[in-house]
Amino acid sequence: MSVERMTASLSGLWQPRIQLKSLHYGSGCVEQHLLSTLPGPLSKVIIVTGTSLAAKTPLVHRLETLLEGHHAGTVSGIRQHGPIADVERALETVLSGDDVDTVLSLGGGSSIDTAKVISLRTKEKRGTFLTHLTIPTTLSAAECTAGGGYTQPNGLKVGFRAPEMGVSAIFYDAQYAHYTPKHLWLSTGMRAMDHAVESIYHPCSTEVPWKALSLWAVSELFKCLPKARDTHPHDQDVTTRLMLAAYASSGLKGENLKGGMGLSHSLGHALGSPYGIPHGITSCMTLGKVVRLKAYESPETARQISRLLPPAGGRPTGDDLRDALEVGDRVIALVDSLELDVGGLSARGVSKEEIPIIARRALAGVVEGPLYDQLVKLVQTLF
Q1: Would you say the pTM of this structure is higher than 0.70?
Q2: How far apart, in Å, are the Cα atoms of 375 and each of 74, 279, 292?
Q3: How many percent of the chain have pLDDT more than 90?
């Protein structure tokens, strides 16, 4: 009966994204392949990165030396959630020279998203997008999407999306993740878990490749995040496996993705930039509880979530609701096992008076109804 039900529901459309031209992985891949991915022999490159990587690691100097004559400048100091002031400062550097055709982002989601917006703004000013190369140093998977944004002075995020905003080349190099603090590495791993889990019940998600890769990503993340807790940054194989899992969680969604990713993501956005909470931490707070809430949404949603139980290390019972609830419990248990200082919203300076505002933001302005009421109760548990 379950086979017939699955067969009867199998239909969909996946439209590939064509912007990505190469994905290199493995220790040393930056030094081996970066120059070959430049768009031309005379290309000029702006490096976009954060303060810590520029000031506390040798990585930026290493890249500047590798690029040699291709290096046109470095913009460091990109802050969490990409404030508009940082975007404008970086754009000014790019536009100061007519020959800059490439942006190289080094870091996590803030640096990568800022580079995407710089590329878009360059298109508006000059008529041509920049080639975007990226070396991710976290597991947030920002490199996987053709969208980005910046944070306004009021703390709210503004997003943009265009196929040409996608990156041209990704380098998953464990040597460059070596300097990522363990708490940041593990928490952004839960952000990748958020992508993978919410792919399963997204209405646009296709069986191949999206859900198939998400199932694999969930399995890898459940296996490797506890290993990274004990070994990061010294086990390069675990580091590389986690980076590939991050890509699998979000890299092949396709161009026909409609709407946001899911309730955990929208709740994360409602908590992230407005209150200065990293998205890895918001995923730690919200994902397991959202999965439990979604399990009750419909029998079909429960069935889809229940497919994640074996990758999460559980044994299916055949009861979809029961299995889906266990997936949520296993996500919560995984976060607890990673020994992260997640804490609650009160410890992060958020007042309980903000609860209805958070719920309204997460639901795009909805302020009543069963889902709003359920979400208010869920947010209350985050304090």
Answers
A1: yes
A2: 43, 18, 12
A3: 75
